[in-house]
Amino acid sequence: MKALYLALTVAFGLASAALASSAMAQSAAATTPAADPANTLVIELKSGKVLIGMRPDLAPKHVERVKMLTKEKFYDNVKWHRVISGFMAQTGDPKGVGIGGSKYPDLPAEFTPHVYKRGTIGAARTGNPNSANSQFFICFTDQGCRGLTGQYTVWGEVISGMEHVDQIARGEPPATPDVMQKVYILADQKK
Known about the structure:
CATH class of the largest domain: Mainly Beta
CATH architecture of the largest domain: Beta Barrel
Oligomer: single chain
Strand order of the largest sheet: 8-3-4-6-5-7-2-1-9
């Protein structure tokens, strides 16, 4: 009887584990958005590719600007000039020092209550809410950027390659800054 009880317990445990694993896989698949090539930004870093799902539903003007600058190759070889552990990595300044922008006018804020978390992409700005231009940042942790919610425009989220973002050299500025080697829209690369 003990042998039967043990066999049933083991079998039940394996079945439960299999169901839990299946449920977790389905849940993960449901929360990972499918990449829309027209709204997927690809950043090639020295360690690999980072795919960003752009969010025109949250910030249409910011996404339009990023697409325009990307098509102009503005972001190619631009440094990560401010990289703070537990917080974020910032780039998008052609001067590589954090005070530059594109030749286009600054953008109006497109603030939303979308919560900042690991992998969220935000538009960098000065103290003026309507001063975002070309610079952006990627959050390292769920807690590090949470205080920026509703104060900085969210225009995207990392959908693949966050492990490469984690490897960007730290510092303000880093002693040897990493660069975005090549940046492009996924749909444009497929042509």
